Amino acid sequence: YLAHDVFIMPSRFGFWENQWRGEGFGIVYVEAALLGLPSIAYRCGGVTDIIRNEYNGILVEPDNIGELADAIIKLATQPELIRTLGANAKSLANALFTPPQIRKEMALALKGYPFLQAHSL
């Protein structure tokens, strides 16, 4: 990550050929963000929980190669936008995806399950 300015991984998620396929969450987008890299990704799956379009990266419609190319060109020609999106990416990742924050979200999600009350997250 450290040798790059932008993280690009256009990975699909969805149901086709009778099964779920593709990238469900995409921890690599969080890893890139924690290092100050904005991402370009397809607008599907869990990536939409990580990337906010035009705030900390760019989301494009799945399989729209023209839109993907436009996003790459946009960032390649606007280094200040890369820096802004990258700073936002790092800030948002540090606010939402640190171990304490993840533990807090897990505790909220699992609240009310009796078997967990004896265990601490």
| Alpha carbon gyration radius | 17 Å
Which runs of at least 5 residues are low in confidence (pLDDT < 50)? none
Q: Given the helix and strand composition, which structural class is it?
A: alpha/beta
Strand arrangement, major sheet: 1-4-5
Kindly estimate the percentage of residues that lie in beta strands according to DSSP. Answer: 5-15%
Q: What separation lies between the terminal Cα atoms?
A: 30 Å
Mean pLDDT: 89
H/E element string? EEEHEEHHH
How many beta-strand elements?
A: 5
Largest sheet: 3 strands, parallel
How many distinct helices? 4
Shape: flat
Helix content: 40-55%
Structure explained in plain terms:
The protein is an alpha/beta fold. The chain has four helices and five strands. The strands form two sheets. It has a three-stranded parallel beta sheet, sandwiched between helices. Strands 2-3 form a two-stranded antiparallel sheet.
Report a brief summary of the structure:
It contains four helices and five strands, in the order βββαββααα.
Main traits of this protein?
121 residues; alpha/beta; 3-stranded parallel sheet
How would the blueprint of this fold be written?
Blueprint: E1 7-8, E2 13-16, E3 19-22, H1 27-34, E4 39-42, E5 57-60, H2 65-76, H3 79-96, H4 99-110
Parallel strand pairs: 1-4, 4-5
Antiparallel strand pairs: 2-3
Helix pairs in contact: 1-3
